[in-house]
Amino acid sequence: MSLTLDASILFKVNSDEVTYKTADGEMVIKAPKEEKTTPTAKDDGWWSPQNAMTICASVLIFGVFVLIVTSYIGSREHGGEELNKFNLMVLVIIAAIFLVTAGYTETQITPVVGLLSTIVGYVLGKGKK
Length: 129
Prior knowledge:
Blueprint: E1 2-6, E2 9-13, E3 17-21, E4 26-30, H1 49-77, H2 80-101, H3 106-125
Antiparallel strand pairs: 1-2, 2-3, 3-4
Helix pairs in contact: 1-2, 2-3
């Protein structure tokens, strides 16, 4: 590709260099080569995809365990509606912890946490009047 700006300067652009041809001579500017590195198993660091999946699964298993324990204890001492409200709170907290450990960014988590908060607000606000 060549582009002539005026009679005394000519540009020639390649993928890795730009050539300026003027009346005084020729000047070549080369772009620095980018080194492409591929991560190895040793360079993955602590937060590899396998470790992230393990932590996410651990959070979900812990959440199911907590829901089972709270359901068992709550069913012996309280009625159904209070137990449902408490279990919903536990479920929302576990969901938020899961989203954080899954590695979502703040902008991705914000709408989901807003929706979870709306559901909790509706359930806790709805009651006998």
